[in-house]
Amino acid sequence: MDTVIMVGQFILSLSILIILHECGHFFPAKWFKTRVEKFYLFFDPYFSLFSYKKGETEYGIGWLPLGGYVKISGMIDESFDKEQMEGPPQPWEFRSKPAWQRLIIMVGGVTVNFILGILLFAMIFNVWGKDYLPNSEVTNGIFVDSLGMQLGLKDGDKILQIGDKDFERFSKSAFINDVVFNEANQITVERNGSRKTLDLDPEVVAELTKFQNQKKSIFDMRLPYTIDSIVVESHAKDAGLRPNDKIIGLNGNYYPWYHQFATAIAKVETDRVSVIALRNRDTVTADIKLLEGNKLGIFPQPASHYYNFENEKYGIAQAIPAGARESWDFLSNQVKAFGQIFRGKIKAKDSLGSFITIGKLYGTTWDWRKFWNLTAMLSILLAFINILPIPALDGGHVMFLLWEVITGRKPSDKVLEYSTMAGFILLIMLMVYALGLDISRLF
User: Fold this and answer.
1) 3-class state of residue 161 by DSSP
2) Hey, which of 23, 38, 385, 437 would disulfide with 71, CB 3.0 to 4.6 Å?
3) Which residues sit opposite 130 in a β-bridge?
């Protein structure tokens, strides 16, 4: 069922993006009286799952969920319909239309995706607002993993600045954006009551972008281990532990913070442990039989129990510009990441992923806020990728059209055909490579 929920979210999100993207081509083509032969969600090599014809256009759903398309008469695209192109141009064909009309038809898809991303972010801000934790709330400081230690951070540090920018909202993603994409080369922390500036090693920063490190904590807020609830199957309740007890030790060792206890219990090789807890001012010792995976069967109090999270509310008038800023920030980071791949600072294999990687982002529970947030990001990403000047993508067609507008000379059909074929082969190779990376990561 978990897999069904994850795949279902991915397919629904992909379907929304594809249909609206193709509408961005379809409606301008219709407005300029250009014949559209097919409008398909997903690709349909050899057969389709569903199709019907209305007027001059066949609408359908293919079986290969790698994209979708509209087939426009008189246009060299991934269908490679050479027979049609050999005849004389007809007034309803794409190639017979003025260059400015063809340009509008081609940029329609990416325009829709950019606008959709802005509107979805705006809707999220208007409906749910924006949750954040003020950095000033993190009074216990942070704990760090091995990667955080390589950056120079230590348990108990309080992050004050990234580069010359104040770290006002506690956020690992904001930290990574500033360090990796905005190339901040220093971190200022409060350590043992004193300010300390840490110079970042570029080689360690490069480690942050590697695929195998993308799920690492780097750092997080340091929290006590106070019991919120105990699962029925656990032996912790029978051993005497109760909600609101504060766990402070394991097998005679003192571990006042949750991350310390979690690290210690993961290394235990026996099936029973001795847990020390505080109940008001009393000390409680409980001998507990572990569940599978060295688990106590205890849920800790969430961070919101200790810190006051805030929610920034947005009316419609504020949500739209906020959605535009969020879209621009996301797009800027993608462009910076793309540039760093070309400069060799980020390895392409650490940034590439197929539909397997994307599908996993949705998770195994249906969360509408997360769903729409991912859909908004994918919409912006789809627009960015599609506008790249690569033949077989919208940006490749735009590139040739701009050449025609500037020079007054139209590229020959052979040039368009061969370049589109080369671009299509390149994209297929890239998708196969990304799929291969995901399959290798599974093992």
Assistant:
1) strand
2) 38
3) 312
Structure confidence by residue, pLDDT tens digits, 179-212: 888 888 999 999 999 999 999 998 888 888 777 7
Cβ burial, residue 33 (10 Å; 0-12/13-18/19+): exposed
**Nearest 10 degrees: CA dihedral of 220, 222, 224, 230?**
0
Report the CATH number of the 225-300 domain.
2.30.42.10
Span 111-130, pLDDT tens digits: 999 999 999 999 999 999 98
Structure-block tokens of residue 169: 């909202």
Q: What is the pLDDT of residues 22-34, one digit of tens each?
A: 999 999 999 999 9
The CATH classification number of 131-221+303-312 equals 2.30.42
Q: Are 66 and 3 in contact (CB under 8 A)?
A: no
HSE (CB half, 13 Å, CA atoms) of 108? 24
Q: Helices 368-386 and 2-31 meet at what angle, rounded to 10?
A: 50
**Which residues touch 289 (CB under 8 Å, ≥6 apart)?**
235, 271, 272
Residue 96 and residue 35: Cα distance in Å, rounded?
11
pLDDT at 272: 92
The pair of structure tokens assigned to 94 is 């794409």
Tell how strand 142-144 and strand 186-191 pair up.
Answer: unpaired
Give pTM, 2 decimals.
0.77
Domain boundaries, the chain: 1-129+323-397+412-424, 131-221+303-312, 225-300
Going by C-alpha positions, the residue among 39, 49, 159, 34 that lies closest to residue 90 is 34
Assess contact for 60 and 80: CB atoms under 8 A: no
